[in-house]
Amino acid sequence: AICSRVLRGIHPDVLALEPEGYTYPIETIREAVATAALTPMEGDRRLIIVNEADRIIERSQNALLKALEEPNPSVTWVLVASVLAPVLPTIVSRCQLVEFAALAEADAVKVVQARSFQPESAAAIAVRAARGEVDRAVALVDDPSAAELRSLAIDAALEAANPPDGRRALALAARVAAAAQAARQVREAAAAAELAALEEALGTARGSGAARRRLGDRAKRAARRAETDVSIEFCRWLAQTYRDLAALAAGAPEDTVTAPDRFAELAPAARTRPLTAWLQLAGEAMAAQDAIRTNASPTLSVESVLLAPLALAGQLGVPVPVSH
Known about the structure:
Largest sheet: 3 strands, parallel
Structural class: mainly alpha
Distance between the termini: 68 Å
Strand content: under 5%
Shape: globular
Oligomer: single chain
Radius of gyration: 23 Å
Number of helices: 13
Number of strands: 3
Strand order of the largest sheet: 1-2-3
Helix content: 55-70%
């Protein structure tokens, strides 16, 4: 019963935080710090989990640092991060580091099978595509929109093997923008349901207006993140496919490709450009991903990276068609 309540996010002594938008509002961190000062309600300890802690901006990290410098003995903080570089050294020095190694590919396939109820062949392709990231692999086999976004990125990378065409590039960018907007609408619909449930529970009781405003603000940030994450994930898939093309251009074997289901298309496409060209395009896609994370326009960033083959064609002396 306790585990079920924790997993549903309703245990009073367990607080799990997620970024709102790309980062954490400082108010969220301050609320968590205030919660850490409270006595546990049911057990001996209170647990505060900060997921994607590497997304907390420095100002908010400083607010968190105060709680870690003088920790409440009945509170355990768990900071989960993919990379440590964005985390203040003063925070890292006050934590006990626990590193998790990646699962072996065969083990990851079994986990994806168990979570998605998909056949081994589908799970194996998803794990290879997701480079061992289980959640990402499960999304590929369970969520049609995730699979479609990956397919769109592979199509865009393959397009770079053809004579560059600005109109086709912008048409692909429009499809990414439509996918991002659809993700935003799904999140907004979920937020509307949450707000309706809150209003039904609280009615017009005193303080309900403030609670509705907080939920509304959180919902706006979550919707914005849902939209932005699609563009980031597209650029990530695009960079990964360009790396596959670079590997094949360098003569790497088929089993090194992260898109084995598209190998028949990738192999001939890889031969149309030199290794350096594919690596340059991969770099452009990675740079676009980073730019979106630091608040650049997702739409303009995606358009820019999809138009990059035109600039590359000029460097390589490839003729570029001109529309009249």
